[in-house]
Specification:
This protein is an alpha+beta fold and about 375 residues long. Helix content is about 30%, strand content about 20%. It has 11 helices and 17 strands. Helix 7 packs antiparallel against helix 8 and helix 9 packs antiparallel against helix 10. The longest helix is centred in the middle third of the chain and has 24 residues. It is globular and about 70 Å long. It binds 2-amino-4-trifluoromethylsulfanyl-butyric acid and cobalt (II) ion (2 copies). The site of one cobalt (II) ion has 6 residues, from strand 6 and strand 7. One cobalt (II) ion binds next to loops.
Length: about 375
């Protein structure tokens, strides 16, 4: 009695406490598969049913994996398609998603200086990327799945004649990245419903007529985000703003990390070292590499006509990251929360233009603070 009462069985779909068992698993005497509701049972059925055929299929990539926090992967829906009338990056049709053009550009070591037409292409891509992220922002709420956010992003891209850059990039399976709580970056949208108190970053990149625009914001879900997590998000945003302030011709790319780390550590947080900002143009990720930590040895000096991203990932606990066995989801090593903000920038003669800036000039989380966290 006590034994069954104490043991907490978590739902295979959403990881909440669960009491229902898959009847087929019971019949076949397979290890107990628990679900919290019929919806969750249905939600993961297409994947789950395989273990009835071959119980070994249950020994998937995650078996035996030591999760660092409480978040679990849920099931994914099939890959979406983009109408062939929309221009596509080369990797969209490569069987392994290899970005051949980008590889070649990166090898040269050069940082491209864009001409006026190319700059105009980047301005349009940045503006459309922003519109798409704003569409996603409007639907984020308790109970909404990250899969639903991905659907909104995918459709908003198509409406704007954009290819969603993440889709098939080195076989990434979805159209944007959704990174919840301890996920640092590159979370894969799935059927887990967002919960009151979650942090959820949405990272959108669009490819429009040959140019990429890349941005992300971290959002609050509901009205129960802890004070510490609210501070994490605010400080992460400030880190990005302070970094943008020093951008102008003549500054070394390696100096960006100093500004970010100073502000993060002054507030008791750590800076992720595994992932960097990047040059972006007709390539998704190219030169320069832009580390967010101090003491880095990044190459290159800023010049008018360069386009690149700054996208600091800031953690409550340790800076270290661990990769989930899906080979994409990067989580914090201690399972504590992480936040991120990203903009695509153009260096001008006396500073920079934020190509992915929101109309109001203010991130969504500040609106949320005003609406839901007044007092
Ligand atoms: N948008 C991410 C960045 O800021 C990259 C995502 S790559 C993906 O660089 F394949 F994970 F989508
Ligand atoms: Co980026
Ligand atoms: Co991005």
């Amino acid at each position: 009695m006590a034994d069954t009462a104490i043991r907490s069985n978590s739902c295979l779909n959403c990881s909440k406490p669960a009491a229902l068992k898959c009847p087929k698993c019971v019949e076949l005497k397979l290890p107990n598969s628990y679900y919290c509701s019929q919806d969750c049972f249905k939600g993961t059925w297409t994947v789950h049913k395989n273990i009835h055929v071959s119980p070994f299929a249950a020994l998937d990539a995650f078996t035996g994996f030591r999760f660092t926090g409480t978040l679990r992967p849920s099931s994914q829906t099939p890959k979406r398609t983009v109408p062939l009338t929309i221009s596509r990056p080369d990797y969209a049709d490569h069987p392994q998603g290899v970005a051949l053009g980008e590889r070649k550009a990166k090898k040269s070591g050069e940082i491209l200086v864009l001409n006026d037409d190319e700059i105009e292409g980047m301005r349009v891509a940045g503006k459309l990327g922003r519109e798409v992220l704003d569409e996603a922002a409007k639907v984020i709420d308790i109970g909404v799945t990250t899969e639903e956010i991905d659907r909104v992003v995918h459709e908003a891209c198509i409406e704007r004649e954009c290819y969603p850059s993440p889709l098939n990039y080195y076989q990434f399976p979805k159209s944007c990245c959704t990174s919840v709580n301890e996920v640092v970056c590159h979370g894969i949208p799935d059927l887990r419903p967002l919960e009151n108190g979650d942090l959820c970053n949405v990272d959108v990149t669009v490819y429009h007529r040959g140019y990429h625009g890349d941005l992300n914001e971290t959002f609050f879900v509901g009205d129960k985000v802890s004070e510490e997590n609210r501070k994490l998000v605010a400080v992460t945003y400030e880190c990005l703003q302070k970094a943008i302030e020093i951008v102008r011709p003549g500054v070394k790319y390696r100096d960006i990390g100093k500004v970010i780390q100073k502000h993060a550590t002054a507030n008791g947080f750590s800076v992720v070292r595994t992932f960097c900002g990047h040059g972006i143009n007709s390539s998704f990720h190219t030169n320069p590499t832009v580390p967010h930590y101090a003491g880095n040895r990044a190459l290159g000096v800023m010049k008018a006509g360069h386009t690149f991203t700054i996208e600091p990932m800031i953690n409550v606990g340790v800076h270290d990251t661990v990769m989930w066995p899906d080979d994409w989801t990067a989580v914090t090593k201690d399972g504590k929360p992480s936040a991120q903000f990203e903009q695509t920038l153009l260096i001008t003669d006396n500073g920079c233009d934020i190509l992915t800036q929101r109309q109001s000039g203010r991130p969504w989380f500040m609106d949320q603070l005003e609406e839901k966290y007044k007092n």
